[in-house]
Amino acid sequence: MTERVRPSAGASASEAVGDPPSALDVWAGFVLPDLAGCIDGLESGEPATVEFDTTYHDAPDLRLARSGIELRHRRSLDGESEGATSDWEVSLPPAPGVATGAARLGAAGPPDAVPDALAAVLAAVLRGAATGPVATVRTRRSVVALRLDGAEVARVCDDELSVLDGDRVAARFRQVGIDTEDGAPPGMLPGIAARLRTAGGGAPVAAPTSARALGPRASVPADPIVPLAEPDGPAEVAVRAALAATVRQLLALLPHLALLPHLALDPSVEVVHRARVAVRRLRSDLRTFGPVLDAAALGDLRAELAWFAGVLGGARDLDVLALRLQAGVDRLEPADVAGGEVLLAVFEPLRATARLAVVDAVATDRAVALARRLVTVATVPPVLVGPEDRAVDVLRSLASEPWRRLAREARRVDRHSPIDELHSLRIRVKRARYAAEAASRVVAGAARHAEALVEVQDLLGELHDAALAEVWLREQVRSGIDPAAAFSAGLLVAAQRRRADRRRLRSWVDAD
């Protein structure tokens, strides 16, 4: 049976600056202090000791560890029972750009086969590579439960860890981790961390346990490696850097997409959004770099990206519409809220279905093949430029074309233009922005051009979303919903129109 996703204690390498650490390195003689009273009412239980072996599994090139991911099988060392218990667990670092912590998902299973649920989470990162044992760590853990008003809110784990090489201990280290439960008071983690430091706790743990056990090979950057592009350097390096940076971000998001059914709503919305943006950026970059890429070598890559963008778009569009209408319902008069809630209830099964479609797609052979191809293209892009072609010259020229197309389109519209024409303009804005961002590594001033388009893109996006919301609301009325919901739908349509009209009047500057 698969467990729910929980915040993961231990790996603090990717924590935001200023956040309290979830784990500290401590020296061999460290004495765990009494943690009662770190915040008002916090009680500390008696320590309980457990011992277990953790075997880490990875591909031969350690692509999981290099991505900050741990796949481990844990076996309890219980001398009193014949059958020692065992469990599998995968730990993920925080999703890039998403305000959430690391996560872990557990499943029971024998030590010789990764459970299907965990294999699905890792499919796109492994990209077909077989996994096997790469390191074993023996842990002696002293666990102290912390309670508030009788409920357990955290556990502090004092771990003595030994890296095993057969029967020999190859290395030892010790760390203290803080594992908080959902609903723990916000001031508790800083209070516990402060008391541990006062007692002699050291620096925050800088890497997952598997990376410490595996040594330098686990510190090699994940594929594809992003090269350093220089203005006077080869254009091929600049193209590779732009593609590799976005592919790496997408690969880091794919395991989190597989966890969508387990994530809270806010993080799941952001994970889908970030992944969709990454796919859109890749499609745009392939279009921008098209004149210097071998189309035959790329094959149907853009079409496959379009397929995945469509899967993500089904979930993202519903998220945007649901959030937009929720904000509208929140502004209705109390007598009309019930009708609005009827409309919002329609979204829940639709969003659940769309999320499951994303989860199913991520683990398919098609998605795995797409991930493999993206890594190959980002590592050795099929460029048609030579080493003598300077990056600044080539990328300035490539990024200029989307801007020229945008300028032509912009001259044909004004604030009174139909929404489909404004949506077409929005697409041009995004392409020009992404092209400028791709060129910004080597072209001075390109980043400022990209930033200037963000507000325009947001304005046009607001108008497009308002139009889609009106279309959906009208469809609900035509479907025969109850009168109260129909009345609320009319109010929401009027609100969408007023909001869009204000945006046009306030933000649009007519060419004449």
Give a verbal description of the structure.
- The protein is α+β, with helices and mostly antiparallel strands.
- Strands 1, 2, 3, 4, 5, 6, 7, 8, 9 and 10 form a 10-stranded antiparallel sheet that branches.
- The model is unreliable at 1-19 and 80-84 (pLDDT under 50).
- β8 (132-148) and β9 form a beta hairpin.
- Helices cover 50% and strands 16% of the residues.
Mean pLDDT: 88
Number of strands: 10
- Per DSSP, the total helix count is 15
CA gyration radius, whole angstroms:
26 Å
Give the arrangement of secondary structure elements.
Blueprint: E1 6-7, E2 23-25, E3 42-44, E4 48-58, H1 63-66, E5 70-76, E6 86-92, E7 103-107, H2 116-126, E8 132-148, E9 151-165, E10 168-180, H3 188-198, H4 209-214, H5 235-258, H6 265-288, H7 295-298, H8 301-330, H9 334-345, H10 347-362, H11 365-379, H12 391-410, H13 419-439, H14 446-478, H15 483-507
Antiparallel strand pairs: 1-7, 2-10, 3-8, 4-5, 4-8, 5-6, 6-7, 8-9, 9-10
